[in-house]
Amino acid sequence: MEIKDNYQTIASTSEEVLYKEKSSKFFGYAYPITSEEEVKPIIETLKKQHPNAVHYCYAYQLGIEPTVSYRANDDGEPSNTAGMPIYGQIQSFNVTNILIVIVRIYGGIKLGVGGLIAAYRTTAQMTLEVCEIIKKTIDVRFLISFDYKNMNKVMRVIKEKKLEIISQEMEINEVSGLPIGKITVQVRKKNAEMVFDIFDSMFEIDVKSC
């Protein structure tokens, strides 16, 4: 089975979008995130930005199958009228590592369950439509250590396999006094095992995940 090592997300924080329905205002925002810990500070910032709002509803998704995590929050709206419609648009646009927050300023007229679902879904859709959606790969990093005399062997594999060099340094072996090379490379997840095996099979070359 082929390893899935790419996903879609948004390139940057979206511009603000505004949807109006029966005097209520719905402000939509999207953020690229990589951890759940990023959510609360973003919500707090929006509360300062919209102090008169009554609901700060959101949904986020992190990771790719089979290790997806998500949350949908109605923030006081009737159950499943806000968070899940927002999350539904995240699924429809097939994006992950994303947070969408919709801030509602109540206009004095109740929208009803159906009206709320439609308003949050539409605002989430509008928010995603203004985003630049990009494809990213999941990458793995390896630290390759070797005596300086083996530098050419290592560099040949890096060049042949088109590996990205993240860092490169030289140290002096305290025992032998000879220089030791250390190179950190990055490789797509689906190619990681193959690349690891190549370096692992080479004499006097040490490779480990980092």
Kindly estimate the percentage of residues that lie in beta strands according to DSSP: 35-45%
User: Helical region count?
Assistant: 5
| Secondary structure: number of strands | 11
Question: How would you sum up the major sheet?
Answer: 5 strands, antiparallel
User: Low-confidence spans: pLDDT under 50, at least 5 residues?
Assistant: none
Element string (H = helix, E = strand)? EEEHEEHEHEEHEEHE
Q: Strands of the biggest beta sheet: in what spatial order?
A: 2-3-6-4-5
Using only C-alpha atoms, the radius of gyration works out to 24 Å
Structure notes:
With about 210 residues, the chain is an alpha+beta fold. It has five helices and eleven strands. The protein has helices spanning about 40-50, 85-90, 110-130, 150-160, 190-200; strands at about 5-10, 15-20, 25-30, 55-60, 70-75, 100-105, 135, 140-145, 165-170, 180-190, 205-210. The strands form three sheets. A five-stranded antiparallel sheet has the order 2-3-6-4-5, sandwiched between helices. Helix 2 (about 85-90) packs parallel to helix 3. The two termini are about 25 Å apart.
